[in-house]
Amino acid sequence: MRRAEVADRLRELIDARAPGDPLPSERSLSESLHASRPTVRAAIDELVRTGLLVRQHGRGTFTSPHKISQEVPASGEPVPPADGDWTSEILEFRTEPAGARLGRRLQVSPGADVVYVRRRRIVDGEPMAIERIRLPAVLVPGIVAADFVSGSLYRRLREQYGVNPAEAVQTVEPTVTDADESRLLDVPLHSPALLFERTTQDDGGRIIEFTRSIYRGDRYRITSRLRLGPDSG
User: CA 203, 204, 206, 208 torsion: positive or negative?
Assistant: First the structure.
């Protein structure tokens, strides 16, 4: 049996199991699928790279854990919170000049102060993402690192600083983790990931935030709700 055929059979096996369930050993799979162990191993490697399977050293191979889902609703509707219990670990916190490139992004002068936060996002006790947040310092006087540990940043901006986040442009593209990201997210080097970039405006049109985030591709899923017109499709 060829590797592609073995991979298809393994996908059927994964679909019949719950998230986090163990997979039979390579030897058992080789016997049941009538395929050589190198072919089975290569098919498993492929499914590990795509995030359907997870290898745990000394324990075996498992179906991927339950994915954290984030719904992106139709245009004009508020974004609901993502699944799970979210908290943050602050990795870096400082105020620094924007510089030319970020100044253009935030529509401030290159010498204007920007609050920079790098934090690891943790969901239900597991690392999920690394976020790099930049805010014009003039909008958030007195903000401290502890303000980014828990709770909604946008709620804090509204309630504490009178800044009302109203609209954001966000892009998402596939990437892989580098050595530092892999260590912080507890995944193998070059694991599949999602790269988010978001620029947020307040209700007066000011740029109030630019955030660049890396999310684990094996644990995070985006669901889009689409409003279709008569000419859709």
Answer: negative
